[in-house]
């Protein structure tokens, strides 16, 4: 069982409000990426155990910079690629931690990683779009995710149980 759209919307609203001072508006179901489109910056956290899947955050480059600037309290022109990935990773980690609390135990989460390796290799179970003053972003939950590097683990690093 996965959290529904309402639970995900509530989690996103709480994290973005408390971390970035932004109140994103839910847009409803978000489509998957279109073939041939430029990849968006994003982050992914894997979950395994009693529930197996991943949480993914993706947004346009300008919005990723705005999120990082808001998170680190610096001007947007002071943000580089490392800060963007750190901010997106932390937002995704917070999403995964909150979602994990709604899943059966034991479920473990990985450290965040970027989405440069392409789409997750599972079934997209929930895909929700959100709008904030500087653009739109998408949060996706995938189920039955399998590692591209091995049959038994989706973790690029050791799992965490936090």
Q: What does it look like?
A:
By secondary structure, the protein is of the alpha+beta class. It is built from three helices and seven strands; from the N terminus they run H-E-E-E-H-H-E-E-E-E. It has helices spanning 5-20, 61-72, 81-100, and strands spanning 25-29, 42-49, 53-58, 107-109, 113-114, 123-132, 135-143. Strands 1, 2, 3, 4, 5, 6 and 7 form a seven-stranded antiparallel sheet that branches. The two termini are 20 Å apart.
Secondary structure blueprint with pairings:
Blueprint: H1 5-20, E1 25-29, E2 42-49, E3 53-58, H2 61-72, H3 81-100, E4 107-109, E5 113-114, E6 123-132, E7 135-143
Antiparallel strand pairs: 1-6, 2-3, 2-4, 2-5, 3-7, 6-7
Helix pairs in contact: 1-3, 2-3
From the N-terminal CA to the C-terminal CA, the straight-line distance is: 20 Å
Summarize the main sheet.
7 strands, antiparallel
**CATH architecture tag:** 3-Layer(aba) Sandwich
Q: Classify the beta-strand content into a percent band.
A: 25-35%
**Unreliable parts:** 33-37, 149-158
Report the mean per-residue pLDDT as an integer: 83
**What's the number of structural domains?**
1
CATH superfamily: CheC-like
Q: Compute the number of helices.
A: 3
**SSE run:** HEEEHHEEEE
Number of strands: 7
Give the overall shape.
Answer: globular
Radius of gyration: 15 Å
Residues in helices, as a percent range = 25-40%
Please name the CATH topology.
Chemotaxis protein chec
Q: Return the CATH class.
A: Alpha Beta
Helix-and-strand structural type: alpha+beta
